[in-house]
Amino acid sequence: MKGFKSIVFAGLMLTAGACNDFEEMNVNPNNPLLPNTASLFTGAIRTVGTMNSQVGPAGFNITPALYVQQFGDVTYIEDSRYKTINFSYNGLYSGPLVNLQAIIDQNTNENTKASVAIYGSNNNQIAIARILKAYIYQWMTDRWGDIPYSQALKGDQNFSPAFDKQQDIYNDLFKEWKEAAAQFDNGATVQGDILLSGNVARWKKFAASLRMIAALRLSKVDPAKGKAEFASALADGVLASNADNVRYTFLADANNENPLYTNYVRSNRKDFAVSNTFVDYLKKVNDPRLTYMAAPNQKGEYVGVPYGVFPAAGPAQNFSLAASTVAAQAAPVNIMTYAQVQFAQAEAAKLGWITGTPKTLYESGVKASLQQWMGANYTDAAYNTYIAQPDVAYDDAKAIEQISTQRWIALFFQGTEAWSEWRRTGFPVLRPAASTLNGGTAIPRRLAYPVSTEGTLNTENYNAVIARQGKDDPYTRVWWDKP
After folding, report:
1. By the 8 A CB rule, do 278 and 415 touch?
2. Closest C-alpha to 239, from 204, 264, 280
3. Where are the alpha helices (DSSP H) in 155-194?
4. Which contiguous run of DSSP H or E holds residue 326?
5. CA triplet 137, 143, 149: central angle to 5 degrees?
6. What are the residue ranges of helices labelled H in 6-159?
7. Using one digit for the tens of pLDDT, what is the confidence trace for 360-404?
8. What integer is the mean pLDDT of 21-39?
9. Which residues does residue 337 pair with via DSSP β-bridges, in sequence order?
10. Phi then psi for 339, rounded to 5 degrees?
């Protein structure tokens, strides 16, 4: 497989790093055998930023954002009609995952750990790498379902890894996040961390918050375990304010700029605008976040692009593109937010998983989201007016729907997370594109595997996972996605 063959290089570097007879080697001091782990961290984190913001045909982030109708396509009306069926994860294995595994290996191996400690204490490097590695794996399994996990990243030891069950992957992710958070020490700060600057307290909160969100995924398939993991994560300390939000920050630099900016400005394509489903709902409830999520069209109006309507309804200037809040060259992309954590707790309280009042936690999530998006322009008056509206004011009989709908808004441009929560809860109620291009009639519930590599180069394991999980198409539900 392309994704797995690419990691041979890393495996060879690790093998070279384990040699004992360094004095017999002709070593160029300007060309070290071991990669700079600070650079490996930076590279892996840049991919995390990209996979949460990428746009363009079959983009990592825009595809699920289209599925949940936060966005719609403007000219080529194909992505919102689900044309692409197979998506590749190969670059994630051969890129950030192998980099993070190399960091773990080098900080564990007795022959290399002292050398790489100049980039941060061994334990701190391993802990951050484990948290990020688990995060990427969860992001992947939520999209594809069963994926190579326990046999992946083995270099030339295994070019044909088996697919692990999503349930088994989730069980291991809970363990990884908890153990990693406990592994931090008081040693040197990790270098190359462009996400949280090596701040141990923030990494621990991020890890606990990831466990909390993952636990809620189990609400229908294994509520007992979900409840236990959720309570454990909450006790360990999750994001406590917007100051704790985890965001990847792009730069005013063509080499590391926001992908929406690249699409809107640098390439002047403007492929995607905010959908009419999203804009119309925010207008219906007089949502003050609208102007921070969508830009006015050429007439100064907020008009969403008709979702999945073919032929195209008009040029991009007729519709609301994403606002500069998310589309400026250096605009950050959200990875995890306080509002997201509050909505998770509101739902958990409603489910009886934790003590607390669902109404209070729901309102706290709404306020946190308004504060996050409106920034210095937020006022309590705006919040009080908004929360008092009949469609927004908490109603215990409609609690899950209201929490889910507000989470859908708060997760604007967090495509994969918004799609996962929609699949799990069924809210908000969305109508699929009228005329699809994938042979189905519903909104996709998973991504199909990169069949050109899996089906061709890993045939035996590919056939096995299809036999176990179900047909490799957009409508086979992943393990936690139950009606």
Report:
1. no
2. 204
3. 166-183
4. helix 324-327
5. 35
6. 8-17, 37-51, 62-67, 90-92, 98-108, 113-116, 122-144
7. 999 999 999 999 999 999 999 999 999 999 999 999 999 999 999
8. 57
9. none
10. -60, -45
Amino acid identity, position 418: A
- CATH, domain 2-22+31-202+450-469, list 2.30.260.10, 1.25.40.390, 3.90.1150.10, 1.10.10.10: 1.25.40.390
Residue found by looking up tokens 């153990």 in the block: 179
Residue with tokens 């994704």: 3
Task: State CA 292 to chain mean position distance.
Answer: 21
Per DSSP, 355 falls in state: S
Give dist(CA 181, CA 170) in Å, integer.
17
Which helix (DSSP H) or strand (DSSP E) does residue 462 occupy? helix 459-469
Q: What is the pLDDT of residues 311-354, one digit of tens each?
A: 999 999 999 999 999 999 999 999 999 999 999 999 999 999 99
Are 15 and 157 spatial neighbours (Cβ–Cβ below 8 Å)?
no
Q: Any long-range contacts for 314-318 (C-beta under 8 Å, 24+ apart)?
A: 315/74, 315/75, 316/74, 316/75, 316/270, 316/273
Helix (H, G, I), strand (E, B) or coil at 32: coil
Distance CA 471, CA 465 (A): 9
Dihedral of alpha carbons 247, 415, 219, 164, sign? negative
Mean pLDDT of 72-76: 94
Cβ-based neighbours of 266, under 8 Å, separated by 6 or more? 254, 257
Asked if residue 41 has pLDDT above 90, the reply is: yes
- Among residues 69, 38, 43, 73, the alpha carbon closest in space to that of 57 is found at 73
161, 154 Cβ separation under 8 angstroms: yes
Alpha helix (H) residue ranges in 184-243: 200-216, 223-236
Q: What is the phi-psi region of residue 470: left when phi exceeds 0, alpha when psi lies from -120 to 50, beta otherwise?
A: left
Give the contacts of 303 (CB within 8 A, at least 6 positions apart). 276, 279, 297, 318, 319, 320
- CA dihedral sign of residues 219, 221, 226, 227: positive
Count of all residues that appear for the chain in the document: 483
Residue of 38, 45, 187 whose CA lies nearest to 123: 187
Tokens representing residue 164 in the block? 């692990």
Question: What are the CA-CA distances from residue 193 to residues 30, 46, 128, 360 (Å)?
Answer: 23, 10, 9, 35
Query: Domain spans of the chain?
Result: 2-22+31-202+450-469, 254-327
Query: In this structure, are residues 340 and 330 in contact, taking their beta carbons and an 8 Å threshold?
Result: no
